[in-house]
Design brief:
With 146 residues, the chain is mainly α. The longest helix has 34 residues. The protein starts with 9 loop residues before the first helix and ends with a helix.
Length: 146
């Protein structure tokens, strides 16, 4: 039966994935706490002005919900790209993964600051995704003997 050997440094990619999980749980807890503190029903993905005590509360909640949705949508691609790249390039993939996780946190913090354009600081996560995509492409070409 064929097996895959990975370098011990692959463990860094696993640590990044765990950090990503912690970040995801933090964002989820932030949203839940914000909803409860401001009496926004938990079943509501986005709050209307009628459901909130002020326009700012609705705005910040909706920005947080939108950020969480965006971050959640990128998770599968990020994790797959990082784990594939880490098979051959564990340190570079792990560093890029850590940059992605930090970038997503900055994106969330900027988005929930009340000024949605502040989320653009999280764009560093796209640099990390680009690096992972290049590593995956190089790995693919090497596996196919190009």
């Amino acid at each position: 039966m064929p097996s895959i050997r990975v370098d011990p440094e692959y463990g860094y990619a696993v640590l990044v994935a765990l950090a990503n999980l912690v970040q995801h749980l933090y964002i989820q807890a932030w949203l839940t706490t914000y909803r409860r503190r401001n009496d926004i029903p938990e079943w509501m993905i986005y709050a209307s002005l009628e459901d909130c005590k002020s326009e700012r509360i609705a705005h910040v909640h909706n920005c947080g919900a939108a950020a969480f949705a965006g971050i959640s949508a990128r998770q599968p691609f990020f994790l797959a790209m990082m784990f594939f790249a880490a098979v051959k390039y564990p340190l570079i993939a792990s560093i890029a993964g850590a940059v992605f996780v930090v970038g997503q946190l900055l994106y969330f913090l900027g988005f929930t600051s009340g000024s949605p354009p502040s989320r653009h600081i999280g764009a560093i996560s796209y640099i990390a995704l680009f690096i992972l995509a290049v590593l995956d492409l190089v790995l693919c070409l090497r596996l196919l003997s190009f």
